[in-house]
Specification:
By secondary structure, this protein is mostly helical. The chain has 14 helices and 8 strands. The strands form 3 sheets. A 3-stranded parallel sheet has the order 3-4-5, with helices on both faces. The structure holds NADP nicotinamide-adenine-dinucleotide phosphate. The site of NADP nicotinamide-adenine-dinucleotide phosphate has 26 residues, from helix 1, helix 4 and helix 12.
Length: 285
């Protein structure tokens, strides 16, 4: 369930490896390539639930997961007892634990397994799964994860995969916005973009994940690998986790509001690296 940028590629890899899929997506058209290749369409999450014993969800945010699991026609009440639900959406740790409680109350096993890697890695089965759950439950879906990814990190009990994921995306989001701010400063100081990028993007102070964004930064064409709006959501996930754990997240919360301002200027559906363009356009003096 959830056949967007990530879920679509992940499901295709399962299908190409011979798994029989039953699929559902809010926007039905996104399922068409899988249906053309033999997958079974379910008209609702609950209709899907009655046909599977292993379910992967790859949804935008916690509200989407809660709605699809527990809303009208949600899948959770209909999943067979003993079945396994693996949520690969990026949520926050306490949300994952709440879903675990809801699942257990219905005799369903739950694991959080958000992924790292982006659109290309999802398509090429090169994702990393960050797993929270029991060893036994992980063993029950390890072949499927190995079909969709190249690495599994079993972080701990339910909620711990999501804990590592929010830390990981906090790093990436802050680094990207820090690069954007500094690069625009350099350009305002009169350094031409090529000289600036040649030096910064070849230096150890800039993360390789940002260097890989160079074609987008230079062309101004931010075809989406990871939507900026979901990066802002992930900083919010980190912010919730920080609040709940008593940690402090000053840089993360400032970055979160920068991404929100970019969303309010219509950058939300572009790749998150468009935060550079946002700084450049909005703060040009
Ligand atoms: P996406 O293309 O926007 O897909 C989001 C999915 O959630 C779609 O299937 C969408 O359905 C569904 N959805 C959203 N709101 C819903 C609702 N209220 N009810 C039912 N379904 C709903 O985003 P994505 O990049 O694949 O991201 C999916 C998850 O993976 C997110 O948690 C994201 O943070 C995480 N992630 C993304 C990347 C990346 O690089 N893209 C990398 C790692 C992790 P529709 O098709 O109908 O909109």
């Amino acid at each position: 369930i959830g056949l967007g940028i990530m879920g679509g590629g992940m499901a295709a890899n399962l299908q190409n490896s011979g798994y029989d899929l039953v699929v559902y997506n809010r926007t039905a058209e996104k399922a068409q390539p899988l249906l053309d290749a033999g997958a079974t369409w379910a008209d609702s999450p609950s209709e899907l639930a009655a046909q599977v014993s292993l379910l992967f969800t790859v949804l935008a945010h916690p509200d989407a997961v809660a709605e699809v699991a527990l809303g009208d026609d949600g899948f959770l009440p209909l999943l067979p007892a003993g079945s396994l639900w693996v949520d690969c959406s990026t949520t926050n740790p306490s949300f994952a634990r709440r879903m675990d409680v809801q699942a257990r109350a219905r005799d369903v096993r739950f694991m959080d397994a958000p992924v790292t890697g982006s659109k290309d890695q999802a398509a090429k089965a090169e994702l990393t799964f960050l797993v929270g759950g029991s060893e036994e439950d992980l063993d029950d879906c390890r072949p499927e994860m190995e079909t969709m990814g190249q690495r599994i990190v079993h972080v701990g009990d339910v909620g711990m995969g999501t804990s590592l994921k929010v830390v990981f995306n906090h790093q990436l989001a802050v680094a990207m916005s820090s690069f954007a701010e500094g690069a625009v400063l350099g350009q305002e100081l009169g350094i031409d973009q090529e000289t600036l990028f040649d030096f910064l993007l070849d230096s150890p102070v800039v993360a390789p994940a940002i260097t890989r964004k160079r074609p987008k930064l230079e062309s101004g064409e931010y075809d989406v690998d990871f939507p900026l709006q979901w990066m802002q959501k992930d900083l919010h996930m980190a912010s919730i986790a920080s609040f709940e754990s008593g940690s402090a997240l000053p840089l993360g919360n400032v970055a979160k509001e920068m991404y929100r301002l970019a969303m309010r200027s219509s950058y939300g559906e572009m790749d998150f690296s468009a935060i550079y363009q946002f700084f450049y356009e909005e703060w040009e003096v």
